[in-house]
Specification:
The chain has 232 residues and is α+β, with helices and mostly antiparallel strands. It contains eight helices and twelve strands.
């Protein structure tokens, strides 16, 4: 993680995402802008939570790990997204692990400053309420999607989520084959059936399976097959 000291850049993000009224004058000096590189962990499940993050550039994946060490991807997030809001309200340790899928920039503020200057600030409380309720809505939509749509649609949606971020050309149209077991868990199918669907997509000219990664060949047709991108 690298701290970005460019205050104009921080102010630009606050203006772009209409966050200037969310944070009062007492909180503004305690905001930081941080950059994370692809693959870097931002939060780790089970560790003490002390900071709220606002994703303003890039894409992250959120996953949980079982006691046996098995990882399950829950979702992919792009701006504007808040990490650590539920932990702040519930006063508990980090629920999930958050990892940068692309180069990521986040505004951060420690809970101690939120408690000192923000817990009675109505615009901030309303912002948190909107974020939390939106997460519940997306979760409900996600569960319905996985139940009602075939694996082909779910896989297409997954590939669209993990292979592209408009702010980072490095991940465009490529998916690591190492993550396919995670993909099977996320979309609710077996690894064997997932491979059959991947082979079908290859035969249709949507993707190519290469050494170490999957290359998307026809993004437009794959997007049509995905219908809508539920995993973001």
């Amino acid at each position: 993680m690298n701290k970005i000291t460019d205050l104009d850049r921080l102010e630009s993000y606050l203006q772009t995402y209409k966050l200037t009224t969310i944070f009062n004058d007492e909180l503004l000096p305690h905001l930081s802008l941080n950059k994370y590189e692809q693959g870097e962990l931002i939060c780790v499940q089970g560790e003490p939570a002390h900071t709220m993050y606002i994703l303003v550039k890039g894409k992250v994946k959120i996953y949980t790990t079982s006691a046996k060490g098995q990882a399950l991807i829950l979702s992919f997030k792009k701006p504007l997204e808040v990490i650590g809001d539920i932990e702040y309200v519930q006063e508990q340790d980090l629920i999930n692990t958050v990892e940068a899928v692309s180069s990521v920039e986040m505004i951060s503020v420690q809970y101690r400053w939120l408690n000192k200057y923000g817990k009675d600030h109505a615009p901030l409380l309303r912002f948190l309420l909107e974020i939390v309720t939106r997460k519940f809505y997306i979760k409900s939509d996600f569960l319905s999607f996985n139940l009602l749509h075939p694996v082909e649609v779910r896989l297409a949606s997954y590939l669209m989520s993990v292979s592209y971020d408009e702010s980072d050309a490095l991940i465009k149209d490529k998916v690591s084959t190492v993550s396919l077991a995670d993909a099977a868990n996320l979309i609710g199918t077996s690894y064997r059936h997932l491979n059959r669907v991947i082979q079908k997509f290859c035969e249709e000219g949507l993707i190519e399976r290469r050494k170490g990664f999957i290359q998307i060949i026809d993004r437009e047709r794959l997007s049509m097959k995905a219908e809508h991108n539920i995993y973001e």
